[in-house]
Amino acid sequence: MHEPQLVMYEEEFHKINSILERLVRESNSKSIFLVDRNGQLIAHTGDTEHIDSTALASLTAGNIAATGGLAKLLGENEFTVLFHEGERDNIHISLVHRKVILVLIFDERSSLGLVRLRVKKAGDELARIFDGLLQKAEQGVGAGADSPFAEITDDDIDNLFRD
Amino acid sequence: MSFINYSAREINTKVVYYGPGLCGKTTNLQYIFNATNEGARGKMISLATETERTLFFDFLPLNLGQIRGFNTRFHLYTVPGQVFYDASRKLILKGVDGIVFVADSQRERFDANIESIENMFDNLREQGIDPKSVPYVIQYNKRDLPNAVPVQELRAALNKDNVPDFEACAQSGEGVFETLKGIAKLVLQKLREGAAG
Ligand SMILES: Nc1nc2c(ncn2[C@@H]2O[C@H](COP(=O)(O)OP(=O)(O)OP(=O)(O)O)[C@@H](O)[C@H]2O)c(=O)[nH]1
Ligand SMILES: [Mg+2]
């Protein structure tokens, strides 16, 4: 049993981005990252320029994986929210739909209560989009002829390594 | 599990370096990091103990360039090789697209290699992943050491599936990119199969 491959399309990507853009405004947070459980960055918004988003994605996924392991040890289902408080910035990590990870970075201009409230609503909307993507994946949309990988040749692969 | 983003036109895959403690997994990533242009790689992250043993994982994102207009990204991870970090190893294997098994060629590590590769198959199964569905290659590392076991002997003990295998000295970098290229090829071929099927 292999989990289906995550495939992102233009349409869903735009929907996701507009949800994140609204969330960053309504929660008064500085930046938001959406990460898949395996550590791949899906989308980000807000003031993300000076943050290494690839590294952030891998570390948050590791963080969720480690606490998930702890939850299992305790016989808990999963810890779905992690919150780390810093001197200046705070980070709120939540697991949406057991599938994707929503990361908000905020400072004193917002509050944990507000972030929680806004994350819950946006999380529900994101969950619906990922449900749809999952369905598409199960129906095999994106596989087959329109996959960019259906026709790659060994030469294409060799070319990647030609320095 | 690979992630294809049609919107950003990129494909992301996850490759894990597995093997017994001190076999040279982290050294492989460090060499790749140092030998790659800044534009083609991100920051390397090492979650390590004070004595530089891997505690949770190392992470190195690489951009291998374009295939058919899609940016091809490989996320390289290492697991902690020490036996008692088994829980962490299982977590790192989640969503894996390809594995490099790094063996330590030294005679005194012969059994540790066998134990580690069996542990790898066990952990894959435990994650619900059929080991046969995950492409992997084997690297016989530390070929420079005088107590290195002949390759045929290592091969007979470790390479039962007859996968591509490579000799290496990760410290000097010999064989490191050959190994990476070997696994990248298998992962991309697998993607092609998935697309065709
Ligand atoms: N002689 C020799 N030494 C090597 C080679 N590759 C790695 N080493 C050394 O072996 C030691 C352990 O290497 P690491 O890369 O940290 O090993 P690791 O597999 O990441 O170990 P864990 O994190 O504990 O699982 C280091 O001192 C390396 O310099 C090699 O090809 N030849
Ligand atoms: Mg290591």
Layout of strands and helices, then pairs:
The complex is a heterodimer of chains A (163) and B (197).
Chain A: E1 6-8, H1 10-26, E2 31-36, E3 41-46, H2 53-74, E4 81-85, E5 90-96, E6 100-106, H3 112-138, H4 154-160
Antiparallel strand pairs in A: 2-3, 2-6, 4-5, 5-6
Helix pairs in contact in A: 1-3
Chain B: E1 3-5, E2 10-18, H1 25-35, E3 45-48, E4 54-67, E5 70-78, H2 86-93, E6 98-104, H3 110-126, E7 136-141, H4 151-158, E8 165-167, H5 176-196
The structure holds guanosine-5'-triphosphate (GTP) and magnesium ion (MG).
Guanosine-5'-triphosphate binds next to helix 1 of chain B.
Tags for this entry?
heterodimer; A: 163 residues; alpha+beta; Beta-Lactamase; 5-stranded antiparallel beta sheet; 21% strand; globular; B: 197 residues; alpha/beta; Rossmann fold; 8-stranded mixed beta sheet; 5 helices; binds guanosine-5'-triphosphate; binds magnesium ion
Question: Number of domains in the coordinates of chain B?
Answer: 1
Any idea what the radius of gyration of chain A is?
18 Å
Cα-based radius of gyration of chain B, to the nearest Å: 16 Å
By CATH, the topology of chain A is: Beta-Lactamase
Distance between the termini of chain A: 38 Å
The major β-sheet of chain B equals: 8 strands, mixed
Principal-axes geometry of chain A comes out as globular
Order of helices and strands of chain A: EHEEHEEEHH
CATH class of chain B: Alpha Beta
Mean residue pLDDT of chain B: 94
Structure described in brief:
The complex is a heterodimer of chains A (163) and B (197). Chain A is α+β, with helices and mostly antiparallel strands.
Notes on the structure:
- The complex is a heterodimer of chains A (163) and B (197).
- Chain A is 45% helix and 21% strand.
- Chain A has 163 residues and is of the alpha+beta class.
- Chain A has one domain (17-147): Beta-Lactamase, CATH 3.30.450.30.
- Chain A has a 5-stranded antiparallel beta sheet, sandwiched between helices.
- In chain A, helix 1 runs antiparallel to helix 3.
- The radius of gyration of chain A is 18 Å and the shape is globular.
- Chain B has 197 residues and is α/β, with parallel strands linked by helices.
- Chain B has one domain (3-196): Rossmann fold (3-Layer(aba) Sandwich), CATH 3.40.50.300.
- In chain B, strands 1, 2, 3, 4, 5, 6, 7 and 8 form an 8-stranded mixed beta sheet that branches.
- In chain B, strand 1 (3-5) and strand 2 (10-18) form a beta hairpin.
- At the A-B interface, strand 1, helix 1, helix 2 and helix 4 of A face strand 1, strand 2, strand 4, strand 5 and helix 2 of B.
- The structure holds guanosine-5'-triphosphate and magnesium ion (MG).
- Guanosine-5'-triphosphate binds next to helix 1 of chain B.
